[in-house]
Amino acid sequence: VTAQRHGGLRADELTALGVDPSSVVDFSASLNVHGPHPDVVAAIRAADLLAYPDPTGLPARQALAHRHGVDPSSVILGHGAVELLWGLARLLVGDGPTLIVEPAFGEWRAATLASGGRPIGWRPDHGLAVDVDAVVRAARASSARAVYLANPGNPSGLALPIDDIAGLARALAVPLVLDEAFLSLSERHADAAVRLPDTVIRVRSLTKDHGLAGLRVGYALATRTLCARVDAQRPPWMASAPAQAAIIAAVERDDFVASSRARLLADRDAQHRRLRALDLAPLPTATIYTLVRVGDATSLRARLLAGHGVAVRDATSFGLPDHIRVAARPAADVDRLVAALAQELPCAPARS
Ligand SMILES: Cc1ncc(COP(=O)(O)O)c(C=O)c1O
Question: What are phi and psi of 150, to 5 degrees?
């Protein structure tokens, strides 16, 4: 089995291990496990499957535009946030250099390489906190055509204050691709409504907010010109009729995102207490997933999955081979995580 590039379960691996997918409790993928809301499910079920949907998803873009107080021409839909990241990398980076604030979700790098570009990583010397001035210097030094930053970061879970993001955008001479996939499910959720300079492209994911990973639905907020350029180099119908229906229903259910966020952040805090009781040290995070130092993460992940049906994210692909990342889940699931960890890590190293 190749190195894990994402959380979530893989059929080939589970089959090879003889693990029944329905028995696995999944801490490796981070999203709103309380979703999707019944209203959103009803809208998806009612979608017209016979007719072609609107090619650019205008009704769904109008709903999002209304929700965010922008013009519909400043909203584009994607087959998940990932598809938008790939389209943006193709357009903005092409065969040139791009700066990635690391450790980072791997798709901007993958998309850059696929378009013949040159990904250049900037990583803090110590810890995981982002130094905005150093990022600006690195962007200039590398002649980056665009900068990719996730806020909150993945896997760190750390979030920059929105003023720092605005300052970063102003200091950069190039577009800032701001991946806000986890912003709504973070302590900094209110920052989603704060305006940012026009050079910022804000990429969002209903996967995370509403628990719709299987549907694949994301959107981006950007200038009208940029949205038109992205659309011009993609096929039509990037959002299916069920995906568009889900968006229209979801924008009416911000209350559901808010209540889910409160539950998830409380679940996260409870999970941290349980991990500390095992002598583990969860790292600080502003959102619904947490890095934990465990020693050999690849081996631990394999043992947890094969022996206990507990999936965690091995952080090796993020350059953190001694960390796992765990998502917030309800207490009964955390019981299973803690029992499995207690067995697999009987004498926890002093992990910081
Ligand atoms: C930072 C970040 N951006 C985007 C995504 C993917 O979002 P989507 O499922 O909407 O493609 C993920 C998924 O884990 C992520 O961690």
Answer: -100, 135
CA 146 to chain centre: 19
> What pLDDT does residue 348 have?
63
Q: Choose which residue among 82, 86, 148, 202 to substitute to test ligand 1 binding: the one with the highest number of ligand atoms within 8 A of its C-beta.
A: 82
- Residues in Cβ contact with 20 at an 8 Å cutoff, skipping those fewer than 6 apart: 14, 309
How far apart are alpha carbons 208 and 219 in whole angstroms? 12
Axis crossing angle, helix 38-46 with helix 241-250, rounded to the nearest 10: 150
Can you say whether the dihedral through the CA atoms of 7, 162, 128, 277 is positive or negative?
negative
**β-strand pairing of 147-150 with 97-101:** parallel
What is the rounded CA–CA span in Å between residue 237 and residue 186? 31
Is the pLDDT at 289 greater than 50, yes or no? Answer: yes
Q: Is 104 in the pocket of ligand 1 (CB under 6 A)?
A: no
**pTM greater than the 0.90 cutoff:** yes
User: pLDDT at position 1, please?
Assistant: 41
Establish whether residue 80 lines the binding site of ligand 1, counting it when its CB lies within 6 angstroms of any ligand atom: yes
Mutate to test the pocket of ligand 1, among 76, 77, 79, 105 (most ligand atoms within 8 A of CB): 105
pLDDT in tens, 78-120: 999 999 999 999 999 999 999 999 999 999 999 999 999 999 9
329 CA to centre of ligand 1 in angstroms: 18
Show the DSSP H helices in the chain as ranges: 11-17, 38-46, 58-68, 80-92, 107-114, 132-141, 162-171, 206-210, 224-232, 241-250, 254-277, 297-308, 331-344
- Sequential DSSP letters for 115-173: TT-EEEEE--SSSS---HHHHHHHHHHTT-S-EEEESS-TTT-----HHHHHHHHHH-S
CA distances from 127 to 3, 142, 177, 286, 290 (A): 24, 23, 23, 15, 14
Q: Which two tokens stand for residue 72?
A: 């519909």
Mean pLDDT, range 225-248, rounded to an integer: 96
